[in-house]
Amino acid sequence: MNGLSTAFILVGLFLIGGVYSFWKQKLPKSLITLLAIGSAMCLVAGVMRLEVWN
After folding, report:
1. How does 16-54 read in b/e, with b if 16+ C-beta sit within 10 Å?
2. By the 8 A CB rule, do 52 and 1 touch?
3. What pLDDT digit, counting tens, does each position of 3-33 carry?
4. 32, 37, 39, 42: which sits with the fewest CB atoms below 10 Å from its CB?
5. Helices 29-48 and 3-24, packing angle to 10 deg
């Protein structure tokens, strides 16, 4: 696991926390959806950069 994949995974988990927080605050669904998509993209990028796939 290198530094960049770790950073992507941590940012993705941080954004998931933001999605949960925004959901509890009843903020607009479009904002929550955009944040969730960004979180999923960060997590997928981090997992795909892991060296176990080589």
Report:
1. bebbeebeeeeeeeeebeebbeebeebbebbeebeeeee
2. no
3. 899 999 999 999 999 999 999 999 999 999 9
4. 37
5. 160
Residue 38 in tokens: 């960004």
In degrees, rounded to 5, the angle at the alpha carbon of residue 40 between the alpha carbons of residues 30 and 25 is 40
35: left (phi over 0), alpha (psi -120 to 50) or beta: alpha
- Three-class secondary structure of residue 54 per DSSP: coil
Whole-angstrom CA distances from 44 to 16, 22, 28, 40 are 13, 22, 25, 6
